[in-house]
Amino acid sequence: MNIRLIILLGLVSLFADWLYESMRAVAPQYLYALGASAAFVGFVFGLGDALGYAARFITGPLADKRGGYWLETFLGYGLQIAAVAGLVFARDVWQVAGLVFLERFSKALRTPARDAIISAAGGKGARGRAFGIHAALDQIGAILGVSMATLMLFLNYQPRDVFLAALLPGATALAVLYVAYKTSGVKPAGKGYKFLMDRKAVVFGMSQFLLGISIIHISLSMYRLSQVPWLASLLYLIAMITEIPASLALGYLYDRSHKTLFIAPLFTTLLAVSYISGGLYLFLGAILYAVVTSYADVVAKAEAAKLGAASSLGFVNAMWGLGLMMGGVLYGYFTDVGNYLTIGILAAASSSASLLLLWRSVT
Question: Where is the signal peptide (predicted)?
């Protein structure tokens, strides 16, 4: 395991997460202040995540064909900085939505290529730990970014001030990435196009699609608390803090047992119960949400990397994102009309179906 490279790429993600998680910590409240509905917020973050994942159908195989993976990684981080910089000047809900979509696409451009480098650095016997270490460092940056955003809102700064402050760690991420590239000595070769996945990859990808549908995006919980903006950011901060131990634990467990693959559907069902209950239960939901997203960042990536290179990573991530989009729109709509029972039924049904497919994908 090339621990030096894993830590350097983790530091890149630390600063990049500081950039974009501080943005995401205030964007739902900003949309609320601009007059957006819960359905629109669910649409923006659901579609944004879906675009960010679905684009990996293309960016993963293209990265494999071109080989090297570093160029896509640099372009992705650079585009992300440009998207957040644009939010400083955005003044209506559609401008904000477009830049959120751009920021998610930048993540799609870089992530399959970067994850292929991490997989190569981890080697066959330590992929789970490699992704776990990377995700933990990643979440430290998320905590710093969300903490900064929460404090700035508490001190009556505006969302645009948060966007502006986030640009400095974004620039730092690019500088550390350059150091990683020059000193790592790891330049994995491409493996050619692989748009057609094998059966296990397809089944696993479908299970992640259903799992994505079952998760209630945290932006909706934040929207429900938007009358007190800093409280909504605090909810997000709790999720970011939880992801650090969750990522390390899940990475360790995955390397020891593939039964770790079956954890997430249970947590999405509990998340739906907490969301329906509302009030302080939303903060419990933030913890449950963090476990599921840690699963997607660690366990699902390690399994996808085992099934293939950037192509498989891109496919599985894309299916997860499409599920998030459908869930975001549906749950946002039912939140607007106050139909929480339907939210619970849909989440439970899709999580159960995901569990069944997961069982088929690994047996």
Answer: none
Which DSSP string corresponds to 251-302? Answer: HHHHHH-GGGGGSHHHHHHHHHHHHHH-TTHHHHHHHHHHHHHHHHHTHHHH
Single out the residue of 30, 120, 145 nearest to residue 67, CA to CA.
120
**What tokens appear for 86 in the block?**
């644009």
Domain count, the chain: 1
CATH at residue 330: 1.20.1250.20
**What pLDDT, on the 0 to 100 scale, is given for residue 68?**
67
pLDDT of residue 315: 79
Q: Tell me what pLDDT residue 173 has.
A: 95
Q: 237 is written with which tokens?
A: 């901060």
* Torsion angle, alpha carbons of 309, 310, 313, 319, to 10: -130
pTM comes to 0.70
Stated length of the chain:
363
Does residue 192 belong to any structural domain of this protein?
A: no
Nearest Cα residue to 63 out of 301, 297, 306, 312 = 312
The label of the residue with tokens 């903006």 reads: 229
- What's the token pair of residue 292? 């599921």
Domain-embedded: residue 17: yes
User: Mean pLDDT in each 10-residue stretch from start to end of the chain (363 residues)?
Assistant: 86 93 88 85 79 74 75 91 92 90 89 82 72 84 90 90 94 94 68 58 87 90 86 88 87 82 89 92 94 87 74 77 84 90 94 88 64
Could you give the 3-state DSSP secondary structure of residue 35? coil
Please report whether residue 193 resides in a domain: no
In the block, which residue shows the tokens 């195989």? 61
Can you give the residue range of the structural domain that contains 153? Answer: 3-184+198-362
Given this model, what pLDDT does residue 3 score? Answer: 83
CA distance 202 to 327: 20
Chain centre to alpha carbon of residue 272? 19
